[in-house]
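Researcher: Please translate sequence to structure tokens.
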Amino acid sequence: MDDSDIQQRARSFISKLDTSNIREDLSVYVTAANAKVKKDELGEGESGYTITKPNGKHIITVNSLETEERQRFTICHEIAHIVLGLESSHEEVPSWSYAKRHPNEIACDTFASELLMPYRQWLSAVPKDEPSVEVIQHMAELFGTSFPAAASKFATLSNIPCAFVTMEQGSVRYAARSTALRNAGAWITPRSVIPAGSVAHQMRSSGKSGTRTSEVPQDVWFENWEKGLDLWELSRHYERTDTTVSLLWFDNDDLPEAELNRFGTRLEEDDGLSELTGELPWPGHSKRR
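Model: Translation complete:
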């Protein structure tokens, strides 16, 4: 399953339920998944787990020592395992980390995001203003989720060319793009180093947690991209986990025109005929077979 499939599964699950009070109470999801939630003091880095009884009832245990925001995400993540039928594979990897995580865990994160921030409610509540720290923080508080989760959701559902990038230990781990950027063939390579000209690079190089917004050239982030155009980058660095996130956006007017092949990849511009040198290009070294 890709992200789109998982999102559709989550939206199908949500469509049958009353989510009007989901910010305050997740019990509607818990009941629909035939589950029960209990809280317990778990070890550091252990957010939760699920046990299924012989009668089919699922018992979701969450770490009471973690923040309320984190516990809400864990509940939805465990519900994703139940609904999608995916086995858990935590393997000592922090739940916030994309590095070396099993695809099942990343898929359940995507499902959990849809449950915490139902897209119809999101679209009706998100301000029409340009992205900003205040807008993203407002949406995070409104849905009881983290700043990175809200920023990722903003990028995915935005009408403007927008992307959200997650970076760990100096490398790009994940990038979510708006429909406009996907259609334009904009691409940020996973596992590549944080671009030297980016705000994210500046924030991480400072060695301190913080947030900053500034303009940078578009081709700093996107491969095979037209030069001479700028975009806005809102970046936040978390020093304790060495995690950096960036929200990238620009006006539709600043979106370079691009021709895509049938695989959705940008085609390079044809620079025209090669310069004449006076040398005939034939006969070549290859032979017709």
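Researcher: Any highlights?
Model: The CA atoms of residues 58 and 214 lie 47 Å apart.
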